[in-house]
User: What shape does this take?
Amino acid sequence: MLACFHRQRANPFSPLWWRYLLLTGVALGLVLSSKWVGLFAVALVGFYTLVELYEMFCNVHMPVRTYARHWVARIVALIVIPLFIYALTFKMHFTILNRYHNSANFMPVGFQVRLRGNPLARQPYDIQTGSYVRLQSNDPGAGYLHSHDHKYPTGSQRQQITGYGYADQNNFWSISRRMAAGTFKTPDDVSTIAAPIAGPIQDGDLVSMLHNITNTYLYADFKFTAPMSGKYAEVSAVSVDNDESRNPNMMWVVEIVNAEKRMKDGRIHPLGTPIRLRNLVNGCMLMSTGERLDKDWGWGQSEMACEVTSKPGRKHLWTIERHVNKNLKATNMGQHMSSSFLRDFAVLNKHMWLTNNALIPDHDKHNVLESDPVSWPFMIYPMRMVGWDNKSIKYLEIGNPLLWWGSAAVCLLFPIQLLYWLVRWQRGSMAHWRAGEFREYIDGAMMLWGGWALHYLPFFLMGRVTYLHHYLPALFFGILLLVYQIYHVSIWYLKERGVRRVLYTSVATIAFVFWWFSPLTYGWDKPIKQLKGMQWTSSWPVYEDRFEL
Assistant: This one.
């Protein structure tokens, strides 16, 4: 669509100009909705648009009103429409996939409670002393407040407090009301050995949090810092049998923040009353730091800490996602909850980003499925898709070598070619070009080379694990540039009959190579040794894999 729009640049605001501009925006929305690699296509169109608008800006004969119309047209077509389509696909996704699964636990609770079959939809409404609660951090990706019978290797070396992303019995805590709001000011006003107060827990009450499985209290201690971030107070768990459990460090003040409209009664409820837990002694707030614990002793779970701050944010907020109390009657929580599509949309996209960034390679061992971007253009190491024994059907992720190698060559040599042509243009030695012909050629080549570069080069900057198939979008542009170059070189130096011969020979050769490697593409069910002539380079794992253990 971008190429079609480019051809209409001499007819701005004509019906065809509008058609292809709008279709370009639609295409951007669709490719972005399919996979985030579509952002590179958005970047390509963005660079093209900026160059086009800059050239118009330099045109002193263009009226300001006309120039403003060009801006408005592109903002609507290339920004508003793609974003609308992208958001619409999520709306459709939410509407169609409306059944509950625990993989949706990271979503806002207002979203979860609307899912069919969700166990959160019915639970006791008022949280009281003795209730078991599961607290979910409002910081996306942080998970549930969690503890397990493992110690920190540094600091206090007490039992760990972490954030865990999945429903688990170690996420449950027994909450107890120790003093009512307004009846205490300092730790000296509090008795840690007094019996809990029965009844609903309200905003400003003092509570303790007892871990259900390990029988330990949630505890904050400013003498030690969080093990990974190193700049907040450590939170840990201390046993009820330990003398430390009688310190006021295990006391927390409940603060309700922006409760649902239908839940603004001063009490805490599941799902709809986000809370902060402020430590009685230090005045710090329980938080997610955004760091991950070491995999060797913390299993990569989220780090929790306690921070003194005058500007608390989302990372300090907690939602009681699950409430269990056999003495209370369950109610339909959906009648108390509201939800926002934009909020759900933003949370899901952030979680997608965090999940993608978490796919990091393990440099301590070789994975035959992974490959480095530098090996992609020349297809140095195609990937075995399945087992390679004689009885299995064998598939190799291999492309047409002539297309891969040819496209890689023209893409890597194009900057040199571009420099050569620009030097000749600067010196005025372009007599054999017709008026506008050189600009037309360069515009097309730059568009295709830019698509290849934008879809390939960013992978060198990414920390995530990479595979050969990540090169396929760049390969698409590379093949188009290869064809583009063959065509133009042919018409420059050959007559019409010669151009046709180049065309027929190229198509026939590519088709033959495709047929030659088709057994590896569509599956080979016989011993691989019977398939001759497939090892075109020594690095291809056709007959044996030098990295296989």
Notes: The mean pLDDT is 89. The chain is about 35% helix and 15% strand. The longest helix spans residues 64-96. Residues 287 and 316 are 4 Å apart (CA to CA).
